[in-house]
Amino acid sequence: MSNLRKSADRLVEIGSNLGASNERFKLSTFGSTGSPGVVQQICDPHELGGEWMELASDPAILDVIEGLLGPNVALYYTMFMMKPARQGLSAPWHQDLAFFVHDQARLVACQVYIDDSTPENGCLKVVPGSHRTGLANHFDGDRFVNRVVGDTSGFEASSVALPMKAGGAVFWHALTLHASDPNQSASPRRGMTMEYKDPTTSLMSGSFYPGLEVRGHGLMVRGSDPTGVLLPAIR
Ligand SMILES: O=C(O)CCC(=O)C(=O)O
C-alpha cells in the first residue's frame, strides 16, 4: 500500500501540470467535466510495471478471478480512479460491458483501494443480481453517453453500498450495474480498477462505443492463451 501511495502521489504531481486530458491522465470521468490540474483517472498504470503490475498480477486477486472465469486469465486494462478530496466526480449508473462489448460476458473487474472507501467519499454502489438482466441502453440516439439512459431511481433504491478499508477489494461482473457519488469529503478515495477476462472472449467489431479508451488486447496473467494472440506477462 505504501509503495502504491508513493507512486500515486508521483503520478498526480506529473498530471497536475496538465490543462487538458491526454491518453494517460484524464481530468474528467464518464463524460462529466473536471478542472484543469485535477487528475480524475490514470489509464493503464500497469504499463509502468513495478508495484502497479505487481498488484494486477497479485496471486490472491487472481485466485478469485480464476474461480470466476476459469484457469486462463487475461488482464484487459487497468484504470486508477483518483476520486480526489472535495473534487472527485461521480460515476453514473453503468455496466462496464457497454464500454467494450464482447461476444461473451466473461469479464470481471476488481477494484483495490489505497484509501478507506466510505459512503462520504464516494464508495462503489452496485445493484445485486443485475449481471443477469442483460445489457441496458447506454445510448442517446446514436451517441454513447457513458451511463444507462432513462430513469435510474430503481437502481438507486435497490443498490447496496460497498465501503471498503484501504487494502480491500471489490469484484464485480462486467454486466453488474454500478455507480458512485461525487467525493465531497476531505479524504481522497483512490482505487485501482483492473479488468480481467477469459482470453477466448473478443471485443466485437465496431465496439459500439467510438470513444473506446481500451488500447491494448490484454496480457496473460494466469494460465495460457488458447487463441495464441496474447503475450504472457513477464515477471
Ligand atoms: O471508482 C469508481 O467510483 C467507479 C469505478 C467504475 O465505475 C469502473 O471502474 O467501472
Structural class, please? alpha+beta
- CATH top level assignment: Mainly Beta
CATH topology: Jelly Rolls
Bound molecules: 2-oxoglutaric acid
Whole-number radius of gyration? Answer: 17 Å
* Residue share in helix: 10-25%
- Give the total of domains: 1
Approximate shape: globular
CATH homologous superfamily classification: q2cbj1_9rhob like domain
Order of helices and strands: HEEHHEEEEEEHEEEEEE
User: What amount of the residues lies in strands?
Assistant: 15-25%
Q: Treating each run of at least 4 consecutive H or I residues as one helix, how many helices?
A: 4
Task: Describe this structure as you would to a colleague.
By secondary structure, the protein is of the alpha+beta class. The protein has one domain (2-200): Jelly Rolls (Sandwich), CATH 2.60.120.620. The protein is built from four helices and 14 strands. It has helices at 2-15, 50-56, 59-69, 153-158; strands spanning 25-26, 41-43, 73-81, 91-94, 107-113, 124-126, 139-140, 143-144, 160-161, 169-173, 178-180, 191-197, 219-222, 231-232. Strands 1, 2, 3, 5, 10, 12, 13 and 14 form an eight-stranded mixed sheet that branches. A four-stranded antiparallel sheet has the order 4-11-6-9. Strands 7-8 form a two-stranded antiparallel sheet. It is globular, with a radius of gyration of 17 Å. The relative contact order is 0.23. The structure holds 2-oxoglutaric acid.
List keywords for this structure.
eight-stranded mixed beta sheet, binds 2-oxoglutaric acid, 235 residues, globular, 4 helices, alpha+beta
